[in-house]
Amino acid sequence: QKEVEQDPGPLSVPEGAIVSLNCTYSNSAFQYFMWYRQYSRKGPELLMYTYSSGNKEDGRFTAQVDKSSKYISLFIRDSQPSDSATYLCAMKSGANNLFFGTGTRLTVIP
Amino acid sequence: SQTIHQWPATLVQPVGSPLSLECTVEGTSNPNLYWYRQAAGRGLQLLFYSVGIGQISSEVPQNLSASRPQDRQFILSSKKLLLSDSGFYLCAWSDQGNYGYTFGSGTRLTVV
Question: Dihedral angle at the C-alpha atoms of B37, B39, B44, B46, nearest 10 degrees?
Answer without folding.
Answer: -30
